[in-house]
Amino acid sequence: MNTAGENEGATKQSVGIYPEQALTEKILGAAFAVHNTLGAGFLEKVYANSLALELRGKGISCEQEVPLKVRYKDALWAITLPISSWSAECYWS
């Protein structure tokens, strides 16, 4: 019979060292797969599209060049982030 303490330990172990460890490992795996397949020398867009394909293949939702509103004092800008891809799963939810 499991006690509450035993169940809690199992949950902590399955989560890993930090809460998003499993997702981080998938993202890093996708990035390394792109790098190992393409190597160096392509334009950023080639890597961005390839990374998005890898992430989606791993079941991670992502968007590219995401518009973001930035407020500084009384000014508001709508900018497009120059990052290739990111996961809305945990970082921006």
Give the SSE layout.
Layout: H1 4-15, H2 21-38, H3 44-57, E1 62-63, E2 67-72, E3 75-80, E4 86-87
Antiparallel strand pairs: 1-4, 2-3
Question: How would you describe what is shown here?
Answer:
The protein has 93 residues and is α+β, with helices and mostly antiparallel strands. The protein has one domain. The chain is built from three helices and four strands; from the N terminus they run αααββββ. It has helices spanning 4-15, 21-38, 44-57, and strands at 62-63, 67-72, 75-80, 86-87. The strands form two sheets. Strands 1-4 form a two-stranded antiparallel ribbon. Strands 2-3 form a two-stranded antiparallel sheet.
List keywords for this structure.
93 residues; alpha+beta; two-stranded antiparallel ribbon; 3 helices; flat; disordered N terminus
Summarize the structure.
The chain is α+β, with helices and mostly antiparallel strands and 93 residues long. The chain has one domain.
Described by the principal axes of the CA atoms, the overall outline is flat
Helix tally?
3
Main beta sheet, described? 2 strands, antiparallel
Estimated helix fraction? 40-55%
Which strand-content bin applies to the residues?
15-25%
Write down the secondary-structure element order: HHHEEEE
How many strands?
4
Look at the structure and give the mean pLDDT.
78
Class by alpha and beta content? alpha+beta
For the termini, the CA-CA separation is 37 Å
Nearest-angstrom radius of gyration? 18 Å
Unreliable segments of 5+ consecutive residues:
1-13
Strand order of the largest sheet: 1-4
Tell me the domain tally: 1
